[in-house]
UniProtKB/TrEMBL annotation:
First and last residue of the signal peptide: none
Protein species of origin: Rhizobium mesosinicum
One function term, GO molecular function aspect: dioxygenase activity
Domain of life: Bacteria
A Pfam family recorded for this sequence: VanA_C
Designated name of the protein: Aromatic ring-hydroxylating dioxygenase subunit alpha
Vanillate O-demethylase oxygenase-like C-terminal catalytic domain location: 94-269
SUPFAM superfamilies: Bet v1-like (SSF55961)
Alphabetically ordered keywords of this record: Dioxygenase, Oxidoreductase
C-alpha cells in the first residue's frame, strides 16, 4: 500500500447515527475494516485481523486511522456554536482520487459551468484576486477574500448575491468551506467535505454542514447539497490523469488555481501521496 504519511491521518468511515452493533464493512486505503456500535453506545472500528483502530466521533461521523495519528482530529469551532443546524448529508461514492475530490471542492472557476444558475452563471465567470497561504502554525492551507456571484448561494437564499468564501484544508482528504450566510449577515455557513479513501482511484465523500437556517426542511438541505456534489461527480470521474499530479510541470495553472497550487505543494511537502501521481507518465 503506497500510503506514505497519510496512513497516520484521521479519515471518516461512517455516520455515527447509522451505526449498529452488527457492524458495517467498508474499506480504508485498500484495507477492509468494520465499523460498529458497542453495547455501551460507543463507536468501534476493527481491521480485518480484528485489530482495534484509533477512533474518534466528531461532526456526526466516525473517524479512524490505520496508523498512529500524530495529532488530534482537526477542530471546527462552529460545530460547538449554539443555534446552528448540523446536516449529515450522507455519502457519495466517486471513481476518482480522494485528493482530486478535495481539489475540485477548492475550485471556484467551475461554478458557472458545472453548477449553472445555482453557484454560478455566465457572464459572471471571472475569478477575482484572492489570498492563498499555508499557515505554518496550524499547518493548514487557507484561501481568503474569495468573492463570486451566485444565483442561489444556499437553499435559504432568495436571489443572486455576491458570496464571500474562505477555504481551509486541515487534513489531506478534508476541506472546510466558510461562506456568506444569507439569513444571518456577519456569520458564516460551514460546508465541509470529508473524504474516505477506499483506494487511490476510489473514494466515499461525506459532506457535512453547520448552518444558520431554521426554516428549510432538513430533507431539502440534504437534497440541495447532494445535487451540487452529484453535478461534480461526472466531472471528477472523467478527469485525466485519474490521480492528482504533484509534479508542477504536468499541468499549467491559471490565476484561479492558486488554492490548488498551494494544496499540491502542501501535499508534496508532507509526503501525502496516496491518490497522487508524482511524475509524468
Amino acid at each position: 500500500m503506497k500510503a506514505g504519511a497519510m496512513i497516520d491521518e484521521w479519515y471518516p468511515v461512517g455516520l455515527f447515527s447509522q451505526l449498529t452493533e452488527a457492524g458495517t464493512k467498508t474499506v480504508l486505503m485498500g484495507e477492509p475494516i468494520e465499523v460498529a456500535r458497542t453495547p455501551d453506545g460507543d463507536a468501534r472500528v476493527t481491521s480485518s485481523d480484528r485489530r482495534s483502530l484509533p477512533v474518534r466521533v466528531r461532526y456526526g461521523h466516525v473517524w479512524a486511522s490505520l496508523g498512529n495519528p500524530r495529532k488530534e482530529l482537526f477542530a471546527i469551532p462552529e460545530a460547538d456554536q449554539p443555534g446552528r443546524r448540523f446536516v449529515d448529508v450522507g455519502v457519495v461514492r466517486v471513481r476518482c482520487s480522494p485528493l482530486r475530490a478535495v481539489e475540485n471542492f477548492l475550485d471556484i472557476a467551475h461554478f458557472p459551468f458545472v453548477h449553472t444558475d445555482i453557484l454560478g452563471a455566465e457572464p459572471h465567470t471571472e475569478v477575482e484576486n484572492y489570498k492563498v497561504e499555508i499557515r505554518e502554525d496550524e499547518d493548514e492551507v487557507w484561501a481568503t477574500q474569495v468573492k463570486f456571484y451566485q444565483p442561489q448561494a444556499a437553499k435559504s437564499a432568495t436571489g443572486g448575491i455576491t458570496t464571500e468564501y474562505m477555504y481551509r484544508v486541515p487534513a489531506p482528504t478534508c476541506s472546510v468551506l466558510y461562506k456568506t450566510c444569507p439569513p444571518r449577515p456577519g456569520e458564516w455557513d460551514v460546508i465541509t467535505l470529508f473524504v474516505q479513501p477506499l483506494a487511490e482511484d476510489l473514494c466515499d465523500v461525506w459532506p457535512w454542514m453547520a448552518l444558520f437556517d431554521d426554516e428549510t426542511p432538513m430533507t431539502d438541505l440534504i437534497h440541495f447539497q447532494q445535487m451540487i456534489f452529484l453535478q461534480d461527480r461526472s466531472i471528477l470521474e472523467n478527469q485525466i490523469p485519474a490521480l492528482l499530479p504533484l509534479d508542477p510541470g504536468m499541468e499549467i495553472p491559471t490565476r484561479a488555481d492558486l488554492t490548488s497550487v498551494a494544496y499540491r505543494r502542501w501535499l508534496k511537502r508532507h509526503n501525502y501521496t496516496y491518490g497522487a501521481q508524482l511524475v509524468a507518465q
